[in-house]
Design brief:
Layout (H helix, E strand, L loop, with lengths): L9 H7 L7 E6 L2 H9 L5 H20 L4 E5 L11 E2 L9 H9 L4 E2 L7 E5 L2 H6 L11 H7 L3 E5 L3 H4 L2 H9 L4 E11 L5 E11 L4 E4 L3 H6 L3 E6 L2 E7 H14 L6 E4 L14 E3 L4
Parallel strand pairs: 1-2, 1-6, 3-7, 7-13
Antiparallel strand pairs: 2-5, 4-5, 6-11, 7-8, 9-12, 10-11
């Protein structure tokens, strides 16, 4: 399968989204549609052919941002929260097929260190991101803050923001929503050299008696000039400008009770109330 055919190329779609040289770009995807078209229309059959096609897709993204740009693929895993530990080399993510494929097949990518919210990273800033030792998942020394302060973009490949825009949780932490609190998890951590030790990492978790989730739609961000959308090979591509989305999301949470950014089931918390739980600690044995 060729992504760079004369008409309707993947590169042209990225240019339409104003993704280009020097960009700091996170990619989240649901590539079922693409894999189906590979099989039925482009006769991509078997593991080797599929790997070649996916390599071409990644190579095209790398070419789009260039050596002055940076790519990030989220490989988020919550085994750490479940007491199963974390291995930087092998623990798979739970947020997409393509992301795990990058983990297993692209040695030119590095992995960032947080056991719950790690990224596969390539490009100019890969070394900076991989060297981050942020204890807090979404805190001021995390990749999320870096994306916010360095002009990051988020490419959503056949997914809506409510499925993949974890940046919203970063905003929730920034404004200290009262239905979340810091939780500290201890566990067995294996680093890139195979050394295992007990470590502690934290996340601004949701109170268990509150059913809340990200509720953002891509169209809403586009209407607020924080995202652009296009269509390529029947795949819906959305590019979210993260710094532009930050004040939009923040304002909706603080001044509109999160009506466009959050969804609540059952009890809706009072967003003007103080934090309900100061912090929580979970040991190795749970």
């Amino acid at each position: 399968m060729r992504f760079e055919k004369e008409n309707g190329s993947f590169t042209a779609a990225l240019k339409a989204l104003e993704i280009g040289t020097g960009d700091l770009l996170t990619v989240s995807s649901d590539i079922k549609t693409l894999l189906f078209r590979m099989s039925t229309e482009y006769n991509v059959r078997g593991r080797s052919e599929r790997n070649a096609a996916l390599n071409e897709l990644i190579d095209t993204l790398q070419a789009a941002v260039g050596t002055e740009g940076t790519l990030l693929f989220p490989v988020f895993s919550w085994d750490w929260c479940r007491g199963k530990g974390f291995d930087l080399r092998t623990t798979k993510g739970e947020v997409g097929t393509l992301q795990n494929w990058v983990l297993e097949n692209r040695p030119d990518f590095l992995r960032t260190r947080h056991p719950m919210y790690s990224f596969m990273v390539w490009g100019k800033d890969a070394g900076i991101l991989a060297a981050m030792d942020n204890q807090d998942a979404w805190g001021p020394t995390s990749p999320f803050r870096y994306l916010h302060t360095h002009g990051g973009k988020h490419l959503l490949f056949n997914v809506e923001s409510y499925q993949a825009l974890t940046f919203c949780h970063y905003v929730e932490q920034e404004v200290r929503v009262p239905y979340r609190h810091p939780k500290y998890f201890f566990g067995q951590y294996t680093d890139g050299q195979g050394f295992t030790e007990t470590r502690m990492y934290s996340m601004y978790v949701r109170d268990l008696d509150v059913e809340a989730a990200v509720g953002i739609h891509n169209d809403w961000l586009a209407e607020n000039k924080a995202a652009k959308k296009t269509l390529w090979e029947e795949n819906i591509l959305t590019a979210v400008d993260l710094p532009a989305s930050y004040p939009v999301i923040r304002d909706d949470i603080l001044n509109n009770r999160g009506r466009n950014t959050l969804t609540f089931a059952g009890r809706e918390p009072d967003l003007d109330a103080p934090q309900t739980i100061p912090f929580e600690v979970k040991g190795i044995e749970g």
